[in-house]
Amino acid sequence: MELQVINNATCTFCGCVCDDIQLHHDDVRIHKANKACVLGTAWFLNHTAEKKYPDALIDGREATLDEAIEAAANFLYEADMPLVYGMSNTTCEAQKECVALADQLGGLLDSHTSL
Amino acid sequence: MQKSKFLPRGRKDRTMVLVDIRETKSAKAADIFLQVRPGKDFELITILRALIKDRQVSDQAIAETGLTREVIDDLIRRMKGAKFGCVFFGMGLSMTRGKHMNSAALLTLAAEMNAFTKFVAMPMRGHGNVTGADVIMRWQTGYPFGISFSRGYPRYNPGEFSTVDVLVRGDCDAAFIIGADPGATMPQPAIDHLKRIPTIVLDPHVTHTSKLSRVHITTAPQGIAAPGTAYRMDELPMPLKPALKSPYPSDEEVVRRINEAIAKKPFWLPDGSQPQMLNAQV
Amino acid sequence: MLRITGGKVYDPANGIDGVVKDLCIDDQGLFVPAVEGGRTIDATGMIVFPGGVDVHTHVAGGAINFARAMTPEDHRRTQAFIRTKSRRSGLGGMAPTTFATGYLYAGMGWTTVNEAAVPVLSARHTHEELADIPIVDKASLTLMANNEILLDQLEKGEFERAKQVLAWYLWSAKSYGIKAVNPGGVAAWKYGHDAKQLTSPIDGYSKLTPGVIVTHLARICDELGLPHPVHLHCNNLGAPGNISTTIDTLKHLEGHRAHIAHSQYHAYGGDGWDTMCSETAQLAEYFNAHPSITTDAGAVLFGDTVTITADGPWQHLLYKLTGRKWGNLDVENETGCGIVPYTYRPSNLVNAVQWAAGLELLLLIKNPWQVFLSTDHPNGGCFWRYPEIIELLMRADVRKESLLKLPDGIKGKITLPEIDREYSLYEVAISMSAGPARALGLFQKGNLGLGCDGDVVIYEEDENVRKMFGHPRYVIKGGEIVLEDGEIREAPSGREFIVKPPCDPGIDDFMRPLFEDCYTMSFENYPVEMERIHNPRMQDCIEVPR
Amino acid sequence: MPITFHLKRQPSVPLESEVFSPDVMAELTNTEIRALTIYHGKRQLPISDFFDVEGERSEDLVMHGAMHKVRWIGRAMSRGSITVHGTVGMHLGAYMKGGRIEVHGNASDWIGAEMKNGFIHVHGNAGGQIGAAYRGSMQGMKNGTIIIDGSAGLEVGMRMRRGTIIVGGPAKDFTGLQMKGGTIVLMSGAEIRTGAWMNRGTIISLKPLQLMPTFVRSVDASPMFVNVLAKNLKSLGINLPHKASEGTYRQFAGDLSVSDKGEILVWQPVA
């Protein structure tokens, strides 16, 4: 099968966020990441579109996404001081949702920066 | 390397000085390597701040940083003689003893250098889009991290609301972790607290933190299978171009759905119980 | 659908000066002759204005966001908006958060704001922030006067090419118009220099002068037919004696439309801080003789603020003067920015001159369609203090009282004590709404006529002018009641105005090699994608008469 | 009769309770005091949910219990007294304007932060940022006295402008960071970077200090004001050596990266 090519793709492994990477991929994995550094290549090649993990786990048992979302919402809603933390390896769009979540919950909000 | 009107030969017109406690691979790329004694960054930068203002510092004090007066004098001459100086600094500075004060020292030095020439400083951010989190929190809450909404509006106090401190003291009673794996990196007392309370993890992998959590949700990796935006460490947003279609939903979608699920429940502050706006905060 | 009945209407765009008449707004949020059903606001005895329009403010983007990070101490002492089930929390103050920006503007009846300084590289970021400013409609201006690729074309005398380059940048940024800040000076600041003489070549160029940049940008804006003319922050901001630079700049603009930003900062005489005085009379005279040029006051109010401007060299000077915090941003080949917290004090002669000069310009420029209310937020003061300025304009006695607080040394440095003019409500409506809307080319704003946007502010008439303008009874945005009895009711998201100037499709091929030579991001990723703009509204280009 | 509080159950998350201030309670009845709102995380609850309350209408408050999660006690108080038997959490006496706070036990970070005046005495150990400026503020405590009998954490007296801080036990790094005035007395010394970036003010240490490279030694002597200070401290039960027969103070000026007007005095006892 012929590989598809994406030009000027963006690498989010580190803070440099290079946006000149050429990706060669099929439906399942990226085979080549031209112009990416060692770290970036590993980042692109190590993720696949395979279903390696269950959709969700609740108390270690496999669960559906809907169940997990409901459980997460309940835990966070019941807490007196919930913490929303991380947000490094995710998109700005998700980060905005996280800020909205902490705002709605009346909780704590923090990122890797505080480490 | 990019060329410019004033630096037409690219890299050749630039001088790179590397300061580190050991000679790393990066030293090969540098023109000058300065080996500073571990834990003496703050002292070295403070000496530089004094010396650029022509204040006297003893040879012995300089020697304690691991450098000699000749080397420091040469460095200052190069800094003052540069057309445009830039200091990049990383976690070796900001996460060792002195922490934020080490960064503050470097930023102050860069500001003070502008009495002689153009100088700037920029933190080298580690993980992917941590800059994006900073930037977004600033415009939505006014603060870059370490925020509490418990009084209904944003408050800021690193040390009080920052995650490691909160977890080690056992201050929070639920945790939502996204795009991070504190179970692998944080001190043991912090990890122990995550085990005690309901922890929820969103991650493309089942991580250390997932294993101690009550809820794990697998999500699509950003930039590879999830679209959106990421900020470069100089605070420029870059569009993401995912190559793969993930069998999992994006972080954005999952957090939005959690937000929607919570929004269906009664709001924690009863309607009308609070003023619209406070003029005096706590 | 909404009907507003019995109010005394001030609608300068249609020459209506305090006439009792009814207004109707349809489901599209536009004024119509009549509506069936819906709510009726009985505005009998109240005053009805078109919603305020801020022609020059800094509310979104890299610079103000840097200022937010720099001033946690101000966030702690300022207004805090508490989260409700439907409304996000926020903080006000010198550099309000995006949500609070919307609440505070709408809270005093402003419904449209123009973010006046956006580097193209930060445009994607700025649009994200603008999308998070609720209620008000937005436009943004692109910084162009220190862009290396553009300046190179002007240096070579390639005017047509320069026009195409500018159009390409403008559309890449998805912006509404052009802002020029300290032409040539910010580029020179990359290497610690400035550009102070309008006719001297700037650093790194043999022929190109600030004057050439000014003239050509004005001409390009006219030839492209941008609805808003070149929006110019002159060279030498804040410096004693800069009036000569400003008048010189205005002469370079003759024959073109132009908007001069925050002219208070450009109207000083004297040759040092000791001798600095107001030269607003001279500047006002120029405006009075040249009706095609508009300006905003950039008025100063005493108190704390944070100054933010692309004028990097000025900010470094201010940092040295104050010894306070200083932030500096450099935006690759395009522009830069400096940030310094500042306190204007009546006891400080320089600040006293600045305070008087802003008011003088608003009072000495005779035609209110030429000079608009602004503080160059947050530089001269925070936008949410506009009602204080309105009071100073409407009440000569309040001005006289304030003058008493100034030091004796102010005598002979200002003309404010000799000015008796008081703004009428009609003139206030021009200065805060109809005038800036017209200057921006936003014909659907600041106008209560049929087909225009249903943005209305309704005040309860009050002797206390500051209170009246600070606390409207109702604010209506696009026909929706967003504020009622001092409480924000709804926080809908606003729209963004964008222009698409005519652009030669071949310009991409011309730009690519130049771009790839000096930029650090990919050419393809540089232009802001249209789908990233929240509620875009395209505004047509116009035919500008020669 | 003071108003007495006994913590009856341990909060699971921090309890923000700035209402524990004589300014708030002095005129209130017992019922009104019980109903005052405190914040258990985000939940707004009456004081009586966590405390047994005895007494009413008094400027003197007495608190009992392990209150390490109870924050903002005595915030901005201007009069009266608070006496704590047990531990207290962060921000004790922050923004305080007057009155006395005494803690028979340990306290946490930000004691007397940005206080304007008043007196705070912690008999146990304390955390960091004592009398300091909150992040971003230019000025820490402006006046008043803080005594810590035990140890202290980082950044003691950060950006303080006036007033006195006495630390009996050892202090950690950055004591007197960016100090602009006032006095810090270290009875048992401090770790590193004492006086870093100080502009003005005085740090007195009875134990040798590892100083920043940007301090220069001036003279060995006991300046007059040490005598005055010693007399004042004596009334607080603190013994500051100052007699020539006992030794001298070695004086250092700095921090030269900022100014040479700050001084650090290190006690040199007669051998």
Describe this structure in words.
Chain A folds into 2 domains: 4-46, no CATH class; 56-114, no CATH class. Chain A contains 3 helices and 7 strands; from the N terminus they run βββαββαβαβ. In chain A, strand 2 and strand 3 form a beta hairpin. The longest helix of chain A has 14 residues, at 65-78. In chain A, 32% of the residues lie in helices and 27% in strands. Chain A has 115 residues and is of the alpha+beta class. In chain A, the strands form 3 sheets. In chain A, strands 1-2-3 form a 3-stranded antiparallel beta sheet. A two-stranded antiparallel ribbon of chain A has the order 4-5. In chain A, strands 6-7 form a two-stranded parallel sheet. The mean pLDDT of chain A is 95. A 3-stranded parallel beta sheet of chain B has the order 7-8-9. In chain B, 48% of the residues are buried. In chain B, 36% of the residues lie in helices and 17% in strands. Chain C is of the alpha/beta class and 546 residues long. Chain C has one domain (47-497): TIM Barrel, CATH 3.20.20. Helices cover 32% and strands 22% of the residues of chain C. Chain C has 17 helices and 28 strands. In chain C, strand 25 and strand 26 form a beta hairpin. Chain C is globular. In chain D, strand 18 (247-254) and strand 19 form a beta hairpin. Chains in contact: A-B, A-C, A-D, B-C, B-D, C-D. The interface between A and B is large, with 83 and 99 residues.
Name some characteristics of this structure.
heterotetramer, B: 282 residues, alpha/beta, Dimethylsulfoxide Reductase, domain 2, Rossmann fold, 2 domains, three-stranded parallel beta sheet, 12 helices, 12 strands, 36% helix, D: 271 residues, mainly beta, 13-stranded mixed beta sheet, four-stranded mixed beta sheet, 3 helices, 19 strands, 33% strand
